[in-house]
Amino acid sequence: MKYRVLALQLVMLGINTFVLYAQGSIMNYEHKSLTKNTMDTNDNGFIVIAHRGARAYYPENTMAAFRAAIDFDAEMLELDVQLSKDNIPVIFHDTKLDKKTNGSGFVSDYTLEQLQELDAGSWFDEKFKGEKIPTLVELLEYARGRISVNIEIKTEAVKDVALYNSENSVEKQVVALIKALGMKSSVMVSSFDYRAVKRIKELDPEIYTALLYEKEQSNGLNPKELVDLYHVDAFNCSGRELNRKWLDILNHNEIPFFVYTINEATQMKKVIEAGAKGIFSDKPDLLKQVSDEMFPSKTE
Ligand code: G3P
Ligand code: MG
Fold first, then answer.
1. What is the CATH number of the domain that holds 164?
2. Could you say which of 173, 176, 219, 262 has the lowest number of CB atoms within 10 Å?
3. Is the CB of 77 under 6 A from ligand 1?
4. DSSP string, 14-66
């Protein structure tokens, strides 16, 4: 059954790809492009990242939140990916459905069909009733040609090596989708599970990857040592974790770094001044305003 769903997804992908090319929407659109170790940008290079969409104002990780982030002129969407019971990559942050939908229990205990019957909007506000849990393919198709995407692979979806090799793993599916949609230059893949980013790089070295700092797996290594060990392109960490020593190492070695989750203007300024390549914010509109003020040439 899961293969039938996957096959259907791929057929839809093919049709949609053809339609988009026919409309010329891919060719005509200019957006920020990520390449190995550098990011081609049309301006100062700083990237406004909408954390789970415009999460401060919309139910997180829904199409409404992603559409709003684009309207706010964010430059990248951050989203969290895990697998449904029938192994379809879906966009949802929490391990359990209870807080952010009208369902309950683990996401991974429900098929895609069951997940899509849930209401992922009302918990935030009645006016978002009917918002659904999007699939990764649905979001990527929507984002393509419009905005860059950070796919964060949730730890829950990452399996040990035996299952990784035998199953339709999240890493293999993420890589297949990025390639099928021709989105290598506009996607960053990250994970708190270091196995996932390592596997993504092994599957396709051209895909831009970032380590999401996780103390337990880091064995006291510094950001430069971690980036080298896992062959990633960037280092992502929380604002709380960022410290002077790390900043010196990151900036000295010209390692791009991205910081989450910053929602205050004064903190945004500090992190931008510290040299961050991008910030994850629940308020991409505020971050856009702050970064535009700090880089006036960007708005000229
Ligand atoms: O990728 C940045 C941030 O999203 C990581 O934390 O828990 O919000 O997914 P979390
Ligand atoms: Mg996330």
1. 3.20.20.190
2. 219
3. no
4. HHHHHHHHHHTHHHH----EEETTEEE-SSS--EEEEETTTTTTS-TTSHHHH
> How far, in Å, CA of 231 to CA of 234, rounded?
9
pTM over 0.90: no
Number of domains making up the chain: 1
- Is residue 110 included in any domain, yes or no? no
Question: Are 77 and 148 a contacting pair, CB within 8 Å?
Answer: yes
* 256-278 pLDDT tens trace: 999 999 999 999 999 999 999 99
238 CA → ligand 2 middle, Å: 11
User: Percentage of residues in the chain with pLDDT exceeding 70?
Assistant: 84
Name every residue whose Cβ is closer than 8 Å to that of residue 219 and which is 6 or more positions away in sequence.
Answer: none
Domain extent at residue 13: 2-97+134-299
Cα-flanking dihedrals φ and ψ of residue 257, to 5°?
-135, 150
Judge if the beta carbon of residue 80 lies within 6 A of ligand 1.
yes
Using a 10 angstrom Cβ sphere, with 0-12 exposed, 13-18 middle and 19 or more buried, the burial of residue 270 is middle
Average of pLDDT values for 65-77?
98
Mutate to test the pocket of ligand 1, among 52, 78, 91, 238 (most ligand atoms within 8 A of CB): 78
Q: Is 78 in the pocket of ligand 1 (CB under 6 A)?
A: yes
Indicate which residues carry an active-site annotation: 51, 93
